[in-house]
Amino acid sequence: MKYRTVGIFAHIDSGKTTLTERILFEAGKISAVGSIEDGTTESDSLQEEIERGISIRTTFHSIPWKTTFGEFQIQLVDTPGHIDFRNQVTDLLAAMEIAIVVLEAGAGVQSQARLVMEELLKAEIPMVFFINKLDRFDEEYLDTLVSLEEILQGAPVSLFQKGESGKLEYYLKNPSRFPKSVKEEVLSWSDELLLSSWNDPSGQTDYSLIALRTGPGQGKLYPVYGGSAKTGEGVRELLDLVLWTEPKAKKESSLDEFPLLVLSRRTDPNLGRYAVVYPTEDRHVETFYKTLQKQKNLGLKETTETSTHPLQIIDPDSEEKLTQVTQGKLVFLQEHPDLVLLPGSPVSVKTNFDLEGKHSERSPSPFSIAIEPELASEKEFWLCRLEELGWEDPGYRVIEKEETGQLVLFGRGELHLEIGIRRILERTEKKLQFSSINIAKIELLKKMSHKVALEHRAFEDQKSSGALIAVLEDTADFSKQIAFEVSLPEEVKNSIETSFLEACLYGFYGEEVAGLRLRVISYEMPKGEMQTTLTLLKVAILAGVRELFPSNTKLVGPLTEVDVMVDADHLGVVLSDLSRRSAKVVSIFEAVAGKSHLKANAPAQNLLGFSGALRNMTKGIGISWERTAFTYEFHAVLKE
Q1: Number of structural domains found in the chain
Q2: Strand runs (DSSP E) across 1-109, as ranges?
Q3: pTM of the model
Q4: Is the dihedral of CA 260, 263, 264, 268 positive or negative?
Q5: Most buried one in 143, 397, 619, 631, CB count within 10 A?
């Protein structure tokens, strides 16, 4: 049996989950196609997914598929389309062998699809494109092909056409029905195959089919099919094309490594905590235990009886323990205290290095919400709930404020946090109090270079901190730095550094000050007791540096890019709402079927609640996509 891991990626509401549902039906896994509107799909089973009509969690489906060139077991991965859950998409890429990118006819290539394609190109994953909703928009997809060429830096090849009967025809099924120019397009990426085709006038070998098999894996060919996930037109042909295409080659692991890639983490009443993992090679399970013994020195018994081993690898279909894993066949690995199961990374042995923490630091979120249990005695209960939430989705992070005892939940966006809160409140009558969503902000030093003389006197001017001459200037980023152009005793340097950082904790607007450097030019140390001098020096720096903040800092926060697809009839009211939120409109253009597509930028704090307001303004028809970031190059200046 050949296993093939296939990811389905798309912009939100392009028909990704509908396509998954249709594939399951065509493969005989379900007896009827479920409906997103009715909440009856196989992929979206969480209550939040059913209520909102969007995917918020990656789902995995194993389906058999027969073709004229072999039998396959497809491991279909349906990914969330909303930007708040993008980490679930990137975590999967290392295991993806081929990707189906779903595009909506008439809408061009939308923002989230563009981001996904950039990630897929970077990961060198073969792509097959499916232009969906042709039952509604017929031939309105030329703009999509033009947009694809711009993103891919290469021409996509349209391999479907309308036949004489009015039905769509597909190249792989019958290449002879297509014009010669299409065959030449398919062959154009390989001079060798093109030359072989010319040297075979009899046409005994169809070299275009060889080019179609190998080109996507080389990153040289981007085949495009079209159809309708809702009606099923083109879906069977799409799967045949995906399986015909050679998958991405996998790198071999050494015997001292775990050749298991973690794709996602789950909790099950029967299995407990486990990870969905992708084996990158065939290997007996016994070797995993020996690797663990070697790296952790646990002293485990060397035996092939899996019941005596602490590691449990489970077959997802039968839920039986395995003694052997097969390359490409997804399996479940139960949580183990000596293993790190971090989505997007290979399984590894735990060390003193906190991998989970480092993972969170790579992409810190500016969104958070403060939580307080109604009863202090229930704090441990809620901590357990939050920890379970973070286990399934490491995009959530919880900290406890030492000074107040409050719990703070960080998430990747407004929707991400809202859903996180709803999920921990499920199936319990216990009560939580929580704040509104907080968005990180800082004070940024304005462009300046200001020379200061800092000194503080006490005890009727008999004691002095000494005269410190320094320059306060802005940096090229959000950092805080201190530089010494004079040699000083270590205790004096430490006092200056700690005082400077403390002065930056609370600026004029009450936020931490960033983007500044203190350059110490000279210091005249007074005579007298060192401890008194250091105390007075601290006062001098705190007072002197803070005195400069009111007129020299500005309040900044994350910037949000928003894409909105809305009926032209509702465009005016949406623009009015964005104006009220101080959004800057970047572009507006007409899409299809009376739809307008607009892009805008606004401070993230101004766009809280915008998605819900958009639904209300447009009677549920309007769709928005938002991306928030907070870097030196990408931030909003807030009203002061």
Answers
A1: 5
A2: 2-10, 59-67, 70-78, 98-104
A3: 0.78
A4: negative
A5: 397
